[in-house]
Structure to design on (211 residues):
């Protein structure tokens, strides 16, 4: 006997129903990863003699330095700010007269509720800002909150080799050899076990208007 359409559709009730789950929303971009991507855009930038050039001038001006000066910290701060803005957020990394790694570390020590201080190589993440002292003695002075010369860079990877502490970096005002007074922005590698490493700072991107 022929079956009508209604009776055929009724047989479908014997099959288990499949619930269609919509695709999950994509995870928001990671601030550290976006900071690394931002920094890498500037690899190949070269200064004019004497810490000069349009980008160098802009990075220094953003940290309230209006004369040619060492700019490794200004570069790192500038990348943090630009990365947060590209995400529609605001970096909580300070800019006011923050042209040295020692000043940045001192600020971080006093604002532990707003950032993370990294001392252990196993905790390093892409986008963390690493501070060096010019010598081990200056490292100790900076670590205690004092002022001393040094170098600042952005970590681009986690530690790649636990035995050596090697990790990727993007650095301003350096050279292929890692000078703290070089001629441009370079992508290179360093070791966490350098006796001059003070530590690293992990800043946060927060909503616009947040305190």
């Amino acid at each position: 006997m022929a079956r009508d359409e209604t009776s055929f559709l009724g047989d479908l009730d014997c099959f288990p129903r499949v619930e269609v789950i919509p695709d999950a929303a994509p995870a928001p971009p990671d601030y550290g990863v976006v900071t690394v991507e931002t920094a890498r855009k500037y690899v190949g930038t070269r200064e004019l003699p004497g810490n000069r050039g349009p980008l160098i001038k802009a990075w220094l001006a953003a940290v309230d330095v209006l004369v040619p000066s060492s700019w490794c910290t200004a570069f790192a701060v500038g990348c943090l700010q630009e990365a947060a803005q590209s995400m529609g957020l605001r970096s909580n990394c300070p800019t006011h007269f923050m042209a040295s790694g020692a000043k940045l570390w001192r600020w971080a020590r006093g604002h532990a509720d707003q950032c993370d201080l990294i001392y252990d190589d196993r905790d390093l993440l892409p986008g963390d800002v690493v501070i060096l002292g010019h010598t081990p003695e200056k490292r100790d002075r900076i670590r205690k909150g004092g002022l001393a010369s040094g170098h600042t860079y952005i970590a681009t990877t986690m530690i790649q080799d636990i035995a050596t502490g090697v990790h990727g970096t993007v650095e301003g005002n350096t050279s292929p050899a890692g000078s703290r007074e070089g001629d441009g922005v370079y992508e290179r590698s360093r070791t966490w076990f350098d006796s001059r490493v003070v530590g690293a700072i992990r800043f946060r991107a927060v909503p616009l208007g947040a305190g």
Observations:
- Helices lie at 5-10, 31-40, 54-62, 72-86, 101-110, 136-143.
- The two ends are 77 Å apart (CA to CA).
